[in-house]
Amino acid sequence: MDTKEVLKQMRKETGMSQVKFGEYMGIPRRTIEDWERGLNRPPEYVVRLIAYKLHAEGMIEKEI
Question: pTM higher than 0.70 for the full model?
Fold first, then answer.
């Protein structure tokens, strides 16, 4: 699965909008939007850290 799809899937699994997800993660909404649209790509470690945080806090079922 492509990075943008993984990020969007994780966000949707939390039930958060891009704004709320960005606020929760401390990432600007525009950055989240650009990542999900494929305009920019986050470093792989950032994607793993997001997945780890969401999984550890019980917001997503499985870590990537």
Answer: yes
The CA-atom distances, in angstroms, between 46 and each of 22, 42, 55 are 13, 6, 14
Q: What is the CA radius of gyration of the chain?
A: 10
CA distances from 55 to 9, 10, 52 (A): 13, 10, 5
The tokens describing 42, both together, are 């986050």
Rounded CA-CA distance 35/32 in Å is 5
Contact 6, 47 (CB under 8 A): yes
Tens-digit pLDDT profile for residues 7-38: 999 999 999 999 999 999 999 999 999 999 99
First-to-final CA distance of the chain:
10
What pLDDT shows up at residue 29? 97
